[in-house]
User: What shape does this take?
Amino acid sequence: MTISNSNTEKINVLYLSRWYPNRYDPMPGLFIQRHAEAANMYCNVAVVYVHAVSGNGQKKYEIVSEKINGVPTVKVYYSNNVGDVPLIGRFVKMWRFYRANMLGIRSVKEYLGHFDLVHIHILSRLGLIGLYYKWFRNINFVVSEHWSRYLTATASFNGLLRKWFTRLVVRNAAAVTTVTANLAVAMRSHKLENNNYIVLPNVLSPGFINIKNNNPSGAAIKNIVHISCFEDKSKNISGILRVIKRLADMRDDFHIAMIGDGMDYIKMKKYAISLNIPSKILSFKGLLEDKELVAEMGNASLSLIFSNYENFPVVINESFSLGIAVISTRVGGIPEYVNDENGILLDAGDEEELFTRLNMFLDDKYSFDSEKIKQNAIADFSMENVGKKLMDIYKRFAGRP
Assistant: This one.
């Protein structure tokens, strides 16, 4: 990738991300890719992502440079095979992780030339690179955290060394952005202190803007969509299926499309078969992307989320952008965005309430202004508007500490 940086007036930002779409899975970190694309509208952004690969045949380091939707991106795939010695193997894996990042950073310098700011997505390991640039290169870094591990429901932010190091990174960051205020509160509860916590929403893909909804709430057959990573522990897909079975036993004026893929996808399909849910009521669509996803969602009148815990799923933004109301559990930061004007909130795990609310929706007991939902979403989550917010953050914190 040899691209000259012709606009030297723009702020140059290096993105380092722990999650990012890759050759093995196009879904993880997709919202981070959209942030990079939004910021790149007003700044010069380049992305480095590294991915450990197990199994034979993988080179020790494989550098793939490309320009994705206008953003120079370097993905470094590195071998995770280190032998059977636990302590040495762990050290080697960590060394290769940081070595892969350094190789990626060296490659993107062909585009940026220099960095005014480093933007780290997902802690904790990448924080060491941020500290290096601040302490030894006098370049500030900001952190964006998206992980639900800080939430009480997950209780997965553990380990004395991890906590100490993460606190050190957060304290030294110029700013910390979170997709919801709820996540910022959860991080502070773990003594992750920073004077500049900023709520920064996820970005809508341009493909979701100005798309006509083909299944208004008054349609004879109402289409409902559930979109997730199919991990039952968090998404409670089994609970959805039990409620759908109850509804299907008493009415047939709706259809629910289950969209996505993940660790429990096959298990949930088998569970649906065991419940004997009719195919005219329920379909599993698998992973849909881009135009296929937009087309499927454009036929829906309701988006369903029944998670036990969440931060703020991007499917809510996408549903709103199509004028689709959302029924969701009031977990994580979801109540910060879902309200009586654009959706229905219920308690996590309450299948009886979900059954009742879906029945009421199918009986047209709820009325939502689809166009108002759509316009509010564009104002809040469009790439242009989020990109401007990112530019404002970069202008504030770029340069010397």
